[in-house]
Amino acid sequence: MFNLKKHFILSIIVCLFFPSIQEAQNTPTRDFVISAQGHYGYIMSHRNNMSHLIKGHIYGAELNYIFRTDGTKPWQQTHNYPEVGVCLLHMYLANPEQLGTLEAIYPYTNIRLNKQNRTMSLNLRLALGLGYATKSFDRITDHKNNVLGSRFNAFVNIRLNTVIKLSDSWRVDAGVGLSHASNGAFKTPNLGLNMTTVNLGLGYVFGNKTLNLKKDTIPRCEKKWQPSVIAVFGMKELESPGGMGYLAYGLQFNVYRTLNYKNKIGGGLEVAYNNATIQRWADDDANYQPVFGDILQAGAKFSYSFNMHRLSLPIDFGVYFYKKQHVNGIFFHRIGLRYMVTKHIIANVTLLTHWAKADYFEWGLGYQF
Asked: What range defines the domain where residue 123 resides?
């Protein structure tokens, strides 16, 4: 049976990404593409202590259900008529005893990078969804698997993708991409699984074979400052597998300057209270009783956000100016997704990292003024 943690992860991801899928479904359902693609590549050994898990090249297959936008909504025109899809992925990891296979389901968008033409499009594919590993760390049966501590994981895919039109009905999909599976230290060990693959396949257009692209005059983007506050929480384990889960809380104060419909830059301040820090103090000195100020962390950050209608992809680069426990250093980083549920309410899922080391996933809600 699934345990409570697995139910929690699955429920949050479904609730967060349903708006993205729903947004895609606003395009005409009589016009869609089914694309089947194969993958071939390798697992990246980003830590020396995971090389024993890499036994050979990996391969897999995916099935895509793709919606083509036609500019009915202004954001589709400002982003050069992107495609929005849902993907089912199966990957054989070349180590059935220790890694098994990886299954994933995720929504994504293909952001067009070149100008419109009749035969070829170059796209940047961005995706975040749910992955399931058939093998994960187990003290008895799989104690050498230090890349994935849980069966359920977040799954990220970034891909440079080319679509070549063969006819009004058929197309070739080809590309190269990077995929990452991790639970964000929700359960250790959690080095994370990084895969680089090339993909090739065929797609078939159902319904309307050609699109009549709308080209309306888009109002000039209003350049303004947008302050917001986001309350987040997360859970993590420390390095010893199978230990306690520690809750962390944070409050983030952000301000972004709108540059155009796609890009924002800004910065902010944030504070966090991480219960795992209490255990770290105890590891250093069992007789010391940390006070509130020993556990509190505060930092300042520079921020960038890529925006697509209600969905945004924030990236933060920050430094702690107040931190008593110096594990993980003074720099922090953040990537993830935010979704404007209403004009003011923000749904947030982000990953806090310290350079390439994941700390924990931050789930939360915020308010944009």
From this structure: 4-206
Residue with token string 């982000």: 350
Which domain CATH number covers 277?
2.40.160
Domain boundary, last residue among 178, 206, 234: 206
The number of distinct structural domains making up the chain is 2
Which helix (H) or strand (E) element contains residue 8? helix 4-25
Would you state the pLDDT for residue 90? 98
- The distance between the two most distant Cα atoms of the chain, rounded to a whole number of Å, is 74
The sign of the torsion formed by the CA atoms of 193, 134, 13, 276 equals negative
Residue 339: both structure tokens together: 């979704």
Contact 337, 309 (CB under 8 A): no
Rounded Cα–Cα distance for residues 33 and 94 (Å): 31
Distance (Å, whole) CA 135 – CA 357: 22
Positions of the chain with pLDDT lower than 70, given as ranges: 1-30, 239-243
The model carries a pTM of 0.82
Q: How far apart are CA 106 and CA 17, in angstroms?
A: 9
Q: Please tell me the number of Cα atoms within 13 Å of 147 on its side-chain side.
A: 27
CA 15 – CA 31 distance, rounded (Å): 26
Q: What angle do CA 206, 112, 37 make, to 5 degrees?
A: 50
Query: What pLDDT is stored for residue 319 in this prediction?
Result: 97
